[in-house]
Amino acid sequence: MLDTHNHPTAATALCLVLERTINKALKHDPATAQRLYKQAGRSITLALSEPTIVLSVAFTCDEVEVSPLANPDADCHLTGATSSLIELMSGPKTTLAGSDLTLTGQTGFLMELLEIAKNIDIDWEEALCEPLGDYAGHAIAELIRYKARYLKRIAKRSPRFVGEFITEELQAAPAEPEFNAFYSAIDDLQDDVARMEARIKNLTRATV
Amino acid sequence: MDKDSITHFGFENVKAGEKAERVAGVFHSVAAKYDIMNDVMSGGVHRLWKRFTIEAAAPRPGQQVLDIAGGTGDLTQQFSRRVGENGHVVLADINSSMLNVGRDKLLNAGIAHNITYAQTDAQFLPFDDNSFDIITIAFGLRNVTDKDLALASMLRVLKPGGRLLILEFSKPKSKTLGNFYDQYSFKLLPFMGKLVANDPESYRYLAESIRKHPDQETLKNMMDDAGFANTHYTNMTGGIVALHKGFKP
User: Fold this and answer.
1) Would the CB atoms of A69 and B51 count as touching at under 8 Å?
2) Whole-model pTM?
3) What pLDDT digit, counting tens, does each position of A140-182 carry?
4) Does residue A76 sit within a domain?
5) ipTM of the complex in this document
6) Residue range of the domain that includes A31
7) A182: in domain
């Protein structure tokens, strides 16, 4: 993907898109922008796998720069799986303990960035109103908010729905009580076999 | 290289003394439409090649940069921002028309505080020894009459540890891409030159000069011979363009 070694032009294009998106988004989240601009002069290099992504993010006093090359002078270097970084950024965790990510350099800087990332609050409505006008922008923002809430609810309930569909509707797998009864029957059978084995041993001994 | 020795101007053989004059003619002719033609010819990809060059140059605040054959100032604009108020960028070009277009463009963009302009020949750079942290030459080296002389001149004005980056058309890695690129260069390019800039001849020269330019390995060896250390190159867009980088030991 963002593999500079094999695809420098594509990696540069993706970094450019990422940089423009970040800087545009920051215009609609002044609090996050201010906190990031305070990091001016510092940078972080990410070398991630699955998919391969190598990029450096540098902070200036008025924007964020994304480079497709690793910066050997970066304040910190983070390596590991891409999914682990996404999990770290979106989840409640604030340390690297238990993840496969490895950090060299300033841990404090990474923690500051993680905290900033977790508190991002972009005013999407403002971003939409700019090109579309207030009325259309507000209507679309409302629709997005409604859909987001709906998807969140579905996502919360979906594991239960999927389970019921497989066991009750398709009957492709037994339900939990059936499983429990089955395991209980196996346990009883195991006990019976053990008892019978002991009895046979006793009878054999008595006969001899 | 002697003034009367023979060199190439596209596919033509000309006297070395004549080449600079003819190259100048080409660039005087295309200067006004240079930026728009670059976008049309490359589909805007030249901006990515240049951005990658900036990232590979890794300019830091306070550094001194020389942008040779900087023409319309694409690299200088980025360098100026990155080196900041304590840094300095020299936009150099042998061609006054290109330099004028570049200077006007940068001034119109409000960028003036840390840039100076120099009309100068890359073979005889009029700067002190060990003056620059970074030197770039983007799509310019193939037009230089004596490339070895230019490389030696660049090495002289670089500070020890300073880096030279050469962005230039090169040789495509795959034969299929090479064939497609040939058709594009010799058929479509002059046509677009005629359509947009009303100057098919200059764009025919562009295609021919690319074919006469040393390939990736040859240019790397030339840099090694000139005295650069740790030289390497990165192919971009299948080798249509290559970025060479070397350091002054």
Assistant:
1) no
2) 0.77
3) 888 888 887 888 777 777 666 777 777 777 777 777 788 888 8
4) yes
5) 0.79
6) 8-122
7) yes
